[in-house]
What we know:
Layout lengths: L2 H5 L1 E4 L8 E6 L6 E5 L12 H4 L15 E4 L2 E4 L2 H19 L4 E4 L6 H14 L4 E2 L2 H4 L1 H10 L9 H7 L2 E5 L3 H4 L1 H13 L3 E5 L5 H5 L8 E4 L6 H18 L8 H7 E2 L1 H7 L5 H8 L3 H12 L4 E5 L1 H4 L4 H14 L10 E3 L6 H6 L6 E2 L3 E2 L3 H11 L11 H7 L6 E5 L3 H4 L3 H9 L3 E6 L11 E4 L8 E4 L4 E5 L12 H12 L2 H4 L4 H11 L16 E2 L25 E2 L18 E5 L16 H6 L4 E4 L1 H7 L6 E6 L2 E9 L7 E4 L13 E4 L6 E2 L3 E9 L21
Parallel strand pairs: 6-7, 6-16, 8-9, 8-12, 9-10, 11-22, 12-13, 16-17, 17-18, 23-27, 24-26
Antiparallel strand pairs: 1-2, 2-3, 4-5, 4-18, 14-15, 19-20, 20-21, 23-30, 24-27, 25-26, 25-30, 28-29
Helix pairs in contact: 3-23, 4-23, 4-25, 6-17, 7-9, 11-14, 11-15, 11-17
Amino acid sequence: xxxxxxxxxxxxxxxxxxxxxxxxxxxxxxxxxxxxxxxxxxxxxxxxxxxxxxxxxxxxxxxxxxxxxxxxxxxxxxxxxxxxxxxxxxxxxxxxxxxxxxxxxxxxxxxxxxxxxxxxxxxxxxxxxxxxxxxxxxxxxxxxxxxxxxxxxxxxxxxxxxxxxxxxxxxxxxxxxxxxxxxxxxxxxxxxxxxxxxxxxxxxxxxxxxxxxxxxxxxxxxxxxxxxxxxxxxxxxxxxxxxxxxxxxxxxxxxxxxxxxxxxxxxxxxxxxxxxxxxxxxxxxxxxxxxxxxxxxxxxxxxxxxxxxxxxxxxxxxxxxxxxxxxxxxxxxxxxxxxxxxxxxxxxxxxxxxxxxxxxxxxxxxxxxxxxxxxxxxxxxxxxxxxxxxxxxxxxxxxxxxxxxxxxxxxxxxxxxxxxxxxxxxxxxxxxxxxxxxxxxxxxxxxxxxxxxxxxxxxxxxxxxxxxxxxxxxxxxxxxxxxxxxxxxxxxxxxxxxxxxxxxxxxxxxxxxxxxxxxxxxxxxxxxxxxxxxxxxxxxxxxxxxxxxxxxxxxxxxxxxxxxxxxxxxxxxxxxxxxxxxxxxxxxxxxxxxxxxxxxxxxxxxxxxxxxxxxxxxxxxxxxxxxxxxxxxxxxxxxxxxxxxxxxxxxxxxxxxxxxxxxxxxxxxxxxxxxxxxxxxxxxxxxxxxxxxxxxxxxxxxxxxxxxxxxxxxxxxxxxx
Length: 721
């Protein structure tokens, strides 16, 4: 090993939730920060995707915020840190005095560390409000709700390692690991298939996941190309098939009767829900041949160990909780929980989306998913914090945005970009304009920061240390190199200063990040047994209750963490999307992410390597729809919904179903979230990103001339629901 490699700093990739280990090399100049592979990294063993390899390109980007900014007369000016802090404290105190503490909202960030999000939610609660949330609300809130209420913990039940070693069947529904979790897909899922496992993929869109399992000399891959918003009908066909086949042959193992009897409750409700269920009609609604769904049901139920993986294609619906509950139902009745190679496993989209929720940056829970309206829980946390915690759950992200300019007067945004990430982006902009005050704490002047009154320049992921928690509950250390820009500050230092100025040094001043972690684990039972040094290079899986515990590779071996100790089965019925195609908007719009870009694109659009791969947004259109609308591959088209319009290049492909259009949220010039619907799941309050009514029209023909016919033909038919 070279001296250069010896000097490299071991840390964690800042992108997806897999938690790949990488190294960063500090050059002679502080801005000279380079990527290095970490061959012995516990999760990825040195392998990285294109985003991970390009991660250091944003660290010293020319767009970095380097000085605090204050807006005066509609224009930003550079300010000192003292000026910025004085303005923040004055405005926040004024809002609380005039309107009460619930007039402020706080947004945490999954791009920042556990300690930073912990301190932000503590700051919100010291201010007197539970109006604190993070981006899990836009991606996995329904998954957290369903898993927590039915099993006990809102997280992956199993670890990547035991899944790869023990699972016979991977049921992947609403997730695209080939693009969104590429190392997990290549190192764990594809490797398992090469060794004999079967993959059943349920997704409206054929993608890199689909193609990654197109392996010669094996047919151990099925793609059920479901209609957007029809996951419940498809899963109910699976469940009904399992029930029917079990009744025909009770000894064949379709249902694990012993597991159902001893470890679950609610099985009768599921049977009652499906008693008069019409499989043929449901399969037609799902847009998948009945025989294919029945075959998939057989492969899953007959496996020795079957694991379900779920993602935003399931969670981002008004029926998101029910979608995930139906996956849980399938796992419970077949006994596929509580042992290696099984479970229900959400694939988290950001490197710390799991941890941000773990540490309590949510309006209804304190650290460790302890309910904020539980008197005993609050008292235990108050004993450590030294102040009263409000008992009433607060508003979620989107609810805060809905109330901006009304009951919510101020907003503290750390590392989030709601103008790009929240649905109905045009309306989000108008709501932010109506705020009395907003502070944005970030590394770049984001689309959201443009509307702030104070902008604080933070350091990047590569410049600071702390902990993050990956998709399978592994808490890992991040380590930083020297600051690139002298006058930037770590998010933790900023929060400590704001908290100390608002309240007291005793409550918000810590010696270092380890001291924050020590307080975190004191109030967070699932982290209690971890020490900062004890995390080492391998990390630990929570729950880890006592020092010396190695953490759990899989959950629920003996019982579930519900009130009764039993897994909760609950039959669910189909709930169509809030918007379905009609004459005005005859297509279904759905959205997803690309391997080469990352959420709102704040970092990935500033990476030359990634931008070369996909420099602009596009929309996938089925050839039959393209013919009907007069669209040629490569045409510029106008994609419209009831909330707005964007101009994008058409990609004519059979990857998408007829009647469906597919695009991405990464590009500010043409973001999908200008079009998406902000209607919410009643329980989890997650928006319905994955299904909205839309229309499309050619805007520019080849050669740059306006198209003659920008409207659908008279015989156009509405797309399938």
